Amino acid sequence: MTKFVVTAANEAQRAAWLGGELPPVEKVRPGLWSIPVPIPVNPLRYVLVYALELPDGVAIVDAGWNTDEAFQALGDGLAVAGYEITDVKAVLVTHIHPDHYGLAGRIREVSGAWIGLHPADAGLLRDRYDDEFIESLVARERALLVRSGVPELTLDELAGASMMIRHMVSTAIPDRLIEHDEAVGLKGWDLRALWTPGHSPGHLCFVSPERKLLFSGDHVLAKITPMVAVHPQSGANPLADYLDSLKAMKRFEVDEVLPAHEYRFLELAERVDYVMTHHRERLDEVERVVTGGDGVTCWEVATQLTWSRPWDTIPPFMKRAANNETLAHLAWLEAKGLVRRVVGEPDLWYSM
Question: pLDDT digit string (tens) for 54-102?
Fold first, then answer.
């Protein structure tokens, strides 16, 4: 596939991303600020929190991880804009992953802000972050990995791989459930919510038709593609959900995309086309591997795909993600009647 490079909305922000640096706090437009909040021990390095000025304070899109460093960085960034954490009136969470949702509860404790989340993600909070239910979630993940054909020696390590980041979340039940196409109701902003499932079941983007801005969360990024995977809290065919909601983005005429990672960029429709082509090519690659075998497991397919680094150098958490992403592509192909699954321990995949 011919590589397509989006135009950065701010070249300095792009240079900071490429150079492994933290970009500066930036006034994007009048009344709109971009604040990088660091993510510890993660190749993404930071989440971009957007502060929207209101008559009586600010609303923020996403929050960051629940660490003292992140909380301090958010406070320092707001100070550049002339505000404090106590001025935050609303936290619009694009989805429940720790780098977006983790600090929301701590911010509410300090400021009294309301937290907004889509119902589909709100319904996952208990099993994902409540100590009473987390063992069940890990057991379900382990069962999925067994059916994927993950080797016995690595099963337990992969099943519990995400437990190391649970402490990065201050669990907070949302004050408001935000539905698709709902007006958010921030004074001075014509912001509407867009339900864009795939990366998570309740992922939200926010669009301002008047300003021609799209706050895209992890749904559309400048360089990388978000993880779309089958897991115990996903739908049966998350890749179909993602591609459908991605395609729907093209109907919006926006001048600038404000993602949660990397850097802001200009060409929404072209980036959407590129990402959709990437997944079509990935689906073709998965189908070829299945066709070349005589009943293969998801894990075996994953080990034969093209990744950004050699398979043996991928750490356990990312191998689990790779397996579950591969499963999402297999599920899409199965739904289209292009491959078939023989259920077992493990499931075996065959060409049609």
Answer: 999 999 999 999 999 999 999 999 999 999 999 999 999 999 999 999 9
**DSSP one-letter string for 39-97:** -TT-TT-EEEEEEEEETTEEEEE----SSHHHHHHHHHHHHHTT--GGGEEEEE-S--S
Q: What are phi and psi of 114, to 5 degrees?
A: -90, 150
Angle between helices 134-148 and 316-335 (to 10 degrees): 70
Please state, in angstroms and rounded to a whole number, the distance separating the CA atoms of residues 171 and 116: 13
pLDDT confidence bin for 167, thresholds 50/70/90: low
CA-based nearest residue to 52, from 184, 219, 250, 176: 184
**At residue 109, what is the residue type?**
E
pTM for this structure?
A: 0.95
9-41: buried (b, 16+ CB within 10 Å) or exposed (e) per residue?
A: bbeebbebbeeeeebebbebeeebbbbbbbbee
| Cα pseudo-dihedral 350, 243, 49, 315, rounded to 10 | 10
